[in-house]
Input
Amino acid sequence: MAIIGLMGAMNVGKTAVLKMFVDYVEKEKIGNIKDGLDCKIEKKDFKGESEIEVKNGDGYNKTITPNKVVFIETKSGANHTLFAPGGDRDRAVIRMGIITISRIARQIVGLFAIDESLKDQFKLYDLIRYMPKKIHVCLNKYDLLEGTDEEKQKNLEKKKEEITNYFKKRRITVEGFFLTCAIDKPDFIDYNDNTARMILNLVTNPTSTNSSSS
Ligand SMILES: Nc1nc2c(ncn2[C@@H]2O[C@H](COP(=O)(O)OP(=O)(O)O)[C@@H](O)[C@H]2O)c(=O)[nH]1
Ligand SMILES: [Mg+2]
Output
C-alpha cells in the first residue's frame, strides 16, 4: 500500500495532476496507456478546493485543506492513497496541511512548474522538516516550455541540475524526474499520460521510505 504526497508551491499543478489521474481512472484510460494498469477510484475528496474571487477578474481555485484520493489496483486489489495539500505557505491552515502530509506520506513527489522561477518554488521545502531521503520530482507544465527541441532539452537539463543540487544540500536524493502536462492538450497526450504513469510507477516501485529529518 502506497501513501504518496504531492507537494509543491502554489499553482504548480498539484490539484490538476491529481484530477487528471482521477480522470484517467474513471474514464478507464489508465489501463490502455503504455505501462498502464486497470484501477478504480475508491474515494476522492476535493472539498479543500476553494474558489477565490478576484475583483474585476476571473478568480481561481486555491487548495485550503489537502485533497485526497484512494484508488485500487483492480487485479491485485492493492489500495493506495494520494494526498495533495495546498501550496500557500503563508496561511497557517494550509501550512499545517503541508506539514501533516509530509509526515504521513511514505513517498513524496515534489512538483515544479517548469515555466517559473525555481528559486521561489524551493521556499516551500524550507518549511518541511521531515522529508524522505529520496524523493521524486515532477516537472509539470511541460507544454509551456518554449524553444526548439534542442533548447528545450538544454533548459530541462539545467532545471534538473538545479533541483538535484537544491535537494542534495538537504541530503535528499532525487530518484527520478517525470515530465507532465496536467491540462488536456492534444499535442501533449504523452505528457498527459505521464501524470497517470508517474503515479503507477510510484505505487508499483515503492522504493523510498519516509524516515529522515533534517
Ligand atoms: N499550461 C498548463 N497549465 C497547467 C498545468 N497544470 C496545471 N495548470 C494550470 O495551473 C493553474 C494552477 O493549477 P493547480 O492544479 O490549481 O495548482 P496547485 O496550486 O499546485 O494545486 C491552473 O490554472 C491549472 O489549470 C499544465 O501542465 N500546463
Ligand atoms: Mg491545489
User: Anything to note?
Assistant: Residues 149-169 form the longest helix (21 residues).
